[in-house]
Design goal:
It contains 13 helices and 36 strands. The chain is an alpha+beta fold.
């Protein structure tokens, strides 16, 4: 049944940081089933992964989740358990109980048809699981041999509740018919309506197929088969297999009646009837022939009379002739004496045989009583292993003692079960075992102590491998941050999820802890000095957002370029964070004062008061200014002139001349 593809991308993959995919088991129309290892509970599970091309279909995804919810509502030994359901990226998955073995379809393919006894045994388990589903208000809607699992250890379980719906009211498909056409009930074909009686119809078709080796309706096109389901009665299985008892014929015809009202109301009703059929088949008396000769004892009135009854096909023997005279009388008396002797011998033999039969009957009765006591109340009685998961060790021991079972504690490390609670039970809960049997109760010791290696600066993929190799879990969300000191895609820091303690450099921890990683995406782009448009593009390309900071005058940064960014690389910056940019308005300009016609001293004072540097000559025509009469030398020209604005510190050059 296993068909592993070496090119399957899921093989070897760790799903959701917990389930290690080992091999592919089977592939169906909606999902693929893999054998996987649950690293947290250290057990093999069946991982059902929905096909990627159906992930965007809301109906299929809802149906997939519905299977988990439907099965999770059932707790029955004949229903496959669902442990978990989740989504890893765009991949939806279910985690189910793994049952090594075959399906009923595989069994029919190998053997063709089954005996009535084999059919009854399998159907009792199937109907018991289906009865639990019907009792919980669930209609399976996809019953077929492919969904009956026959485990190697003898367990029989019903699986694949992907099409299950609530059975409180009749349910319609609302679209194309769901389920396999060979097992669809007439009301599903004609009206698209399904309830518990639709499951019963499918069970009847399965019983027919198990007894005869073929389905009752055949056709080249699905619509031909559907038409027969809607219009033709299902024939008796004995028409194909004469060894089928009439009780099973009647059971199949009852379950497959065209009118849903005439069928059993649910699986419990059909299961009770199957038990009756089983008892009727096993208790049918064997054909008994007449004794060849029956001797009847003489009556009190005729001690010599003997009656011999021969078989019906043999005529009665003629009466012995009568002889006259003494010799004849002697012969007659001798004959009478012989008859009396024979009659007495027969009577003694019958009395002896009666005592022997009575003694044998008492022995059989005693043996039956002893056997009944042994298997009913004695050591051979079967009891179900109770549910003990997550009970305390003492409570589990007491629960086993209450049903005459012996507890054997086995301390184990567990990732999921608190210390001192039951982590596993063997045999599994629900299994029937003899009274006095030993049940191994695995009691959790909590998480196993361990050492975690240093993770700081390690590439992300290598860090994750180190964590899983240590039987721990990687946090579902890996936080990304910018860093100028740690390379891109390497670990900046690692913390234990339970207490947020730092374990970047390694240290003590326990197995199964979740480790959260902060991973570098490289440094924050440095956009200082770049034009604003270029700076925005660089931030967006790095996965950051732009925020407008302040507009500032700056003598060194050109107008329209970035003066500074905040936060810089010093603080924790994550993808999507906003970087505030301060933009330069260029240098600040001030008006140049008009100093023409001022004396050199006044001009210098005015220029310096305005924040500029005055370049005023100390001589005029080669002579000191003081030689000239006071006020005769004035400023006749300045550069830059008063019509301009300049930044503070600009030098203003003046030219002197005589006052006109």
């Amino acid at each position: 049944m296993t068909n592993t593809s070496q090119t399957d991308p899921l093989l070897g993959r760790l799903i959701d940081g917990r389930y290690q995919v080992r091999s592919r088991i089977a592939r169906g129309g909606m999902a693929t089933v893999y054998l996987a290892t649950d690293l947290r509970l250290e057990r093999r599970v069946a991982l059902k992964v929905m096909h990627s091309h159906l992930a965007d279909d809301t109906n299929f995804k809802n149906r997939f989740v519905q299977e988990a919810r439907s099965t999770a509502r059932l707790a029955h030994p004949n229903v496959v358990n669902v442990f978990d359901q989740g989504q890893d990226d765009d991949m939806a998955y279910l985690v189910m109980e793994y049952l090594p073995g075959i399906t009923l379809r595989d069994l029919l393919r190998d053997y063709g048809k089954l005996t009535p006894e084999q059919t009854i045994d399998i159907m009792e388990s199937v109907l018991a699981g289906l009865a639990a589903a019907h009792r919980a208000g669930i209609v399976h809607r996809d019953l077929k041999p492919e969904n009956v699992l026959l485990a190697d250890d003898g367990r029989i379980k019903l699986g694949d509740f992907g099409l299950a719906r609530a059975a409180a009211n009749a349910t319609g498909t609302g679209q194309a018919l769901l389920g396999t056409i060979a097992y669809l009930s007439p009301e599903l074909v004609t009206r698209g309506i399904a309830d518990t009686r639709s499951d019963i119809y499918a069970i009847g078709i399965m019983i027919y197929e198990m007894l005869t080796g073929e389905q009752p309706f055949q056709g080249e096109q699905p619509m031909q088969i559907a038409y027969q389901h809607a219009n033709d009665p299902v024939p008796k299985p004995s028409a194909k297999n004469p060894l089928v008892p009439p009780q099973l014929d009647d059971l199949v015809l009852w379950a497959t009646d065209k009118d849903p009202e005439a069928r059993p109301a649910d699986a419990r009703v059909l299961l009770d009837k199957l038990y009756e059929v089983e008892r009727a088949i096993h208790s049918a008396p064997a054909d008994e022939g007449l004794d060849a000769t029956r001797v009847i004892a003489p009556s009190a009135n005729d001690a010599l009379a003997t009656t011999v009854l021969a078989p019906a096909a043999t005529p009665l023997a003629a009466a012995a002739p009568q002889f006259a005279g003494p010799a004849a009388q002697v012969r007659s008396e001798a004959t009478a004496t012989d008859a009396v002797s024979k009659l007495a011998a027969v009577s003694r033999h019958r009395r002896a045989r009666g005592w022997w039969l009575f003694t044998a009957l008492m022995l059989v009765a005693g043996l039956a009583a002893g056997t009944g006591w042994y298997f009913g109340a004695g050591p051979g009685a079967l009891v179900a292993v109770p549910t003990l998961m997550e009970k305390t060790a003492d409570a589990a021991t007491a629960a086993l003692k209450d049903v005459n079972l012996v507890a054997k504690q086995n301390p184990v490390y567990s990732c999921a079960v608190p210390e001192g609670r039951v982590a596993a039970v063997s045999p599994a809960p629900g299994r029937l075992v003899h009274q006095g049997s030993t049940v191994t109760v695995s009691v959790s010791r909590g998480h196993q102590p361990n050492q975690i290696p240093a993770l700081g600066g390690v590439p992300t993929s290598e860090a994750k491998q180190k964590i899983t190799d240590a039987k721990s879990l990687v946090g579902k969300t890996v936080v990304q941050e910018f860093s100028s000191t740690v390379p891109n895609d390497a670990v900046i820091s690692a913390t234990r999820a339970s207490d947020n303690s730092d374990i970047t450099g390694g240290g003590a921890y326990t197995q199964c802890d979740t480790v959260n990683l902060v991973v570098s995406v490289g440094p924050v782009p440095n956009v200082v000095g770049k034009p604003l448009a270029e700076a925005k593009d660089a931030l967006i390309k790095a996965g950051l957002a732009y925020g407008q900071g302040q507009a500032k005058y700056d003598d060194n940064v050109p107008k329209g370029s970035v003066i500074s960014q905040e936060p810089a690389d010093s603080g924790p910056v994550k993808p999507g964070d906003t970087i505030l940019l301060d933009v330069s308005q260029g240098p600040q300009l001030f008006p140049v004062p008009d100093v023409t016609q001022m004396t050199p001293a006044d001009a210098k004072a005015a220029i310096e008061k305005a924040g500029f540097v005055a370049n005023v000559p100390t001589t005029f025509s080669g002579l000191p200014i003081g030689v000239f009469a006071n006020g005769m030398v004035v400023v006749t020209k300045q550069d830059p002139d008063s019509s301009t604005q300049q930044k503070h510190g600009t030098t203003i050059n003046v030219t002197l001349g005589l006052k006109g």
